[in-house]
Specification:
By secondary structure, this protein is an alpha+beta fold. It has four domains: about 70 residues, no CATH class; about 110 residues, Beta-Lactamase; about 80 residues, Helix Hairpins; about 140 residues, 2-Layer Sandwich (Heat Shock Protein 90), CATH 3.30.565.10. About 55% of the residues lie in helices and about 15% in strands. It contains ten helices and twelve strands. A five-stranded antiparallel sheet has the order 2-1-5-4-3, sandwiched between helices. A five-stranded mixed sheet has the order 7-9-10-12-11.
Length: about 500
């Protein structure tokens, strides 16, 4: 009870923490949508601001061009113009301004004003009599006229609460005077309506951007959901996976990156399922096969007496069983390792030399009529240690099911991209119903002489695993004249 109580906080605390993190975490769909909206908002705001900036710049260019044009026309008239009454050049500023203004037509947001200095008061003005759509025109603002008339600058911007005025002036001096300007021609431009139109366009762009963001939200939510649907399936499948159920797979649709992700996840599940299956089979096989020798060892040790001869016999039997257990464990570990990608390590090998080496090693397994009938003289890619292990196992299997003096043949041949290695015996052969059975773990054919076989029934399973590790297979057929022939068929490794 103490141990259970101590473990409970450690197991529940991380779960609560994980649940809290899951509640706080934004889903990928929401994050994608937020990033999309952020980028769209920045882009649309930038477009609207840039458009407004361009339009305001056009207003500036238009006003500057208008001011330059009007002042240029007045300067030219002052220099070359003639008084229509006298036919001679103008001598009085008042007359010059009056005649010039009578001939001009101002734009709707433009004022053309002639200002003449008066002693001790505001300058007198000559204007075109019309109303302007602005709060306080220049010809009604004496203070503004005085500031412009007294300014030493030829142009500028006058900021007022009623709205700014962009102006330009041309000073006019009395002919024959001392040169001090007694009058001035003033062009005033009121940009309020132009700026208001620009602001209206800006507001329309913002409204369109808002509608676009709303549409983007809906479309982005739907598209993100469709794109991430396989990802949700991956997450759901991963959450439902257990050690007892690794059979779920994700449906693959299309040929995009998400489909590739689903295929990769399915491949990972295949590997996991094979790994868990191999683990379960290893545990089941080990428990099944080791139970008998453990029972034998325990029984002999429990019944062992004090007689030295009996003790010696018990130790011999126990040692033999322990050796058998060790061989079973080694074979099971080898079969478990067959699922790993590094189980087979191909390298360039001379097939004739490998076949001869296998023949030399196999001759020590028993007193048989060993014959090396044929070898393939070529270089191929395979794992020489694993192939030697498989061939020696087949040779050992042949020895167990033949008698001294019977023939066992070893040979190899090449056929295109395939390589075949043979072990043929002249024993009793294998019954047709046992030909698939004998390659299963811990299974032996009923026609084989069990008294001669002391193995656990893993030898041919190991041979099959080695063949499949090379991308090949192991086949069995009858030997001409009686017996069994095992053939390792391997596909050459392609670079």
């Amino acid at each position: 009870m103490t141990t259970t109580t101590a473990r409970t906080p450690r197991t529940t605390a991380p779960t609560g923490t994980t649940a809290e993190r899951s509640r706080r975490r934004l889903s990928a769909r929401v994050r994608i949508l937020l990033w999309l909206l952020f980028v769209m908002a920045v882009a649309l705001a930038s477009v609207a601001a840039t458009t407004r900036s361009f339009l305001l710049r056009d207003v500036d260019h238009r006003s500057n061009g208008l001011l330059a044009q009007e002042t240029g026309e007045f300067a030219a008239f002052e220099e070359r113009g003639l008084d229509p009454e006298t036919g001679r050049p103008f001598t009085e500023p008042e007359r010059l301004l009056k005649v010039f203004l009578e001939r001009q037509y101002a734009d709707p947001d433009e004022e053309l004003i002639g200002l003449v200095a008066r002693p001790g008061g505001d300058p007198a003005q000559f204007i075109q009599p019309r109303d302007l759509p602005v709060a306080l025109p220049l010809h009604r603002d004496a203070d503004a006229r005085r500031r412009i008339f007294d300014s030493p600058d030829p142009s500028g911007v006058l900021h007022r609460p009623e709205g700014e005025i962009r102006w330009a002036k041309v000073p006019v001096a009395r002919q024959g005077g001392d040169g001090d300007p007694e009058a001035a021609f003033v062009v005033a431009f009121h940009p309020e309506r132009e700026v208001a139109r620009v602001d209206e366009v800006f507001r329309v762009l913002l409204a369109i951007s808002g509608v676009a963001l709303l549409l983007t939200t809906g479309i982005g939510w739907a598209v993100a959901g469709r794109i991430l649907q396989p990802v949700r399936l991956v997450r759901t499948a991963a959450a439902q996976l257990t050690e007892q159920d690794l059979t779920r797979r994700i449906p693959v649709r299309g040929h995009d990156d998400i489909a590739a992700l689903a295929e990769t996840f399915n491949a990972m599940l295949d590997r996991l399922e094979r790994a868990f299956a191999a683990q379960r089979q290893f545990v089941d096989d080990a428990g099944h096969e080791l139970r008998t020798p453990i029972t034998i060892v325990r029984g002999h040790l429990e019944l062992m007496g004090d007689d030295p001869a009996e003790r010696e016999e018990t130790v011999r039997l126990v040692t033999d069983e322990l050796d058998r257990m060790s061989r079973i464990v080694e074979d099971l570990l080898l079969l478990a390792k067959a699922e790993r990608p590094d189980f087979v390590r191909p390298e360039p090998v001379q097939l004739a030399e490998l076949t001869a080496d296998v023949f030399v090693k196999a001759r020590t397994l028993g007193d048989r009529d060993w014959r090396l009938t044929d070898t393939a003289d070529r270089e191929t890619e395979l794992d020489p240690q694993r192939i030697t292990q498989a061939m020696v196992q087949l040779a050992q299997n042949a020895v167990q099911h033949t008698t001294p003096g019977q023939t066992i043949r070893i040979r190899s041949r090449a056929d295109g991209s395939r390589v075949e290695l043979y072990v043929a015996d002249s024993g009793p052969g294998v019954r047709p119903q046992d030909r698939e059975l004998i390659f299963e773990r811990f299974r032996r054919g009923t026609s084989r002489r069990g008294a001669r076989g002391s193995g656990a029934g893993l030898g041919l399973s190991i041979v099959k695993a080695i063949a499949e590790g090379h991308g090949g297979q192991v086949r069995l057929h009858d030997t001409e004249g009686g017996g069994a022939t095992f053939v390792l068929t391997l596909e050459e490794a392609r670079g």
